[in-house]
Amino acid sequence: GGPAPWACSRWSEELxxxxxxxxxxxxxxxxxxxxxTRVRCExxxxxxLPLPPAAGYGPGSIELRVDVxxxxxxxxxxxxxxxxxxxxxxxxxxxxxxxxxxxxxVLPEEGVDMMPKPWPVLVAPQHEAAGTxxxxxxxxxxxxxxx
Length: 147
Hints:
Blueprint: E1 24-29, E2 35-40, E3 63-72, H1 75-85, E4 96-106, E5 114-120, E6 122-123, H2 125-128, E7 137-142
Antiparallel strand pairs: 1-2, 3-4, 4-6, 5-7
């Protein structure tokens, strides 16, 4: 159900979001001797999300959609935030946020917990050929909590 998995989202300060994390780079050598660069961003955060009021939830009937955003901050935006501190800034947006990808996870039936596991990331079509390395997976787990 719901919109197409690649339908663009709009940023909202009111929705749950992880804390910003810096990308981490590492080098790896595969068993066959090939070198590779890995870029990762690790989060370990929990969100309490209300279950929509409806009866008859069963396995595979609820999807959790998690959006991946690319945040950029130009030197002009940094300068403006410093100037805002002394009342001279132009109040430019703090970050330029671009919707980048989405993860669509099927939740287990109510009351059944799910250990964190990797879910494939569906990259927005406009970013697939943009040259930015796309994320491959996002790990999600579920713990149902009675209120």
